[in-house]
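Sample intake sheet
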Amino acid sequence: MNGPQPTPNLYRRTICVESKPAYEGQKSRTFSVELLAWVLANPMWELGSTNRENTVRPVFLAYAGSSSAARAFQANLQSGRVAADADGGSCRFEIPRSAGFRYEPTSRGEGTLTLVYLPHLFSMQPATTDAGNLSFLCMPPTTWVDEQARAITQAMGSEAREAAMAAYFVAYLDARSALPIANDLRFHLSLFRAAKEQPWCRVPEGSVSNPGELFAEGLSGIGFEPPVMCNVAPDIFAEFLARQTARNLPREQRYEVIQHGTTTVRRPRRVLPHTQAPSAQLSLFS
């Protein structure tokens, strides 16, 4: 289906942090927000796992609340305090202070939406190019995928929406690899499908109590597509790309369409592809 997707139900759970008293006799304070979405990808960073019981360290969080509550919650989260289910549930969320998470609050009226994430996993343009793995989480906004699908429907037909997802995925690969990747939508689609069959690619699986290597909740409710996790060594990717190019790109086209660095997907160093406020890009507050 290439048109806009049905509006999903919004995932919500109240989480809170407790601010300990600064001196004896002072009361502690509790700040609550509504958790809207979160993503776990423990293999993608060194601090992903913790020995603390029932505690998880997400690579992405989205929460909303009053502006004052959101500011206080962020300050406590940044200081390393653990956020817990307000209803006494067993799940606890922790953001290590040393991990370099980015906080992006967007306010409208008295409400604030905050996105919290690890930049190097979500940024399409990596801060540095090194000899490490090609590692990222591909999680495009649904509005972007819908717009691109409409633009390429004539060329891609019923595969337009998946092809738009593929273009986003390949843009990450292109930004992280020195190898030329053919700038052809049908080739991108073939590459995307083949990549998801490889052991170095993962889609969300599992449950809160037993998450897989990649786990996500609530993303569709705030306007993101399900994430695809990629973590591949350069030499393995080189072999994979050569094999897929030989298999899926006609020989006479190979040198005509290879334009390394050419893509219609912008490459910011943030989780979203454009400079507008996150709420606008995700069609929130509408």
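Comment: The CA atoms of residues 196 and 228 lie 8 Å apart. The first strand starts at residue 13 and ends at 19.
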